[in-house]
Design a protein that fits this description.
Blueprint: E1 2-3, E2 6-13, E3 30-34, E4 44-49, H1 53-60, H2 68-75, E5 78-84, E6 92-98, E7 106-112, H3 117-130, H4 132-135, E8 137-139, E9 145-146, E10 155-156, H5 199-214
Amino acid sequence: MLESQYFLIPLLHWRRFPVADQRLQTLSQLCLRLRDPEVTPRDVHLLLYTYSPLYRAALDATPLRWAPPLRRAALERLLALQGYLHSDVSPRLAVSLRRNAAGPPTLVVEGRARPGTAATVRRVEARVRSLSPLLRASPIPFATRLGPPGKSFHSGGSFPMRRDPGPGDADALGRPAGLARVHLVDASAFPTIPATNLTLSVMANAYRIAVASCALEPHAGGPDRARAPA
């Protein structure tokens, strides 16, 4: 299974903003797309979050809890830049069934690291640092964190669509090899997982598959698969 690597870059804004009594929603305040071939061939998806009560707990886990004035100053400047990478430079998830002596088998999901993921995130952080004058905020040194495999919730590609599907693949209508009337209409049929959110892409692909499938003959079987629209 493919996924999009999740990472977090804490930032300090160059200005202080009072946050004591603000009631803010928890969605991101700004969505950014980083497109720089020198960083990575694929786009990087970045979400900027301003103050959240979670920041208080994070700062209380640092030595700043012993210095209330510095803690408050940091709280009024702290931002979080949440990022995602394309699946081409992200870990993979190995999915398998483990037999049990008694009872049903257990679904096991294991993360498989991909060389170069951490280096890509470091290049993203360096690029964000170079953009500090535009963002009016700077990354906190040595504070960037990579999420464990599966953290992003942007996953799929377990039966990727292919023009010439083989075992473990799906055709252009999301049908796994050997199945004529089963269609995968979620992200499991995606050949890659982008850094951006998947919802609209999944909906558009599901609609495409539904429309094309309705055009097939009522009793489509093996031979008719070759006439399925691409």
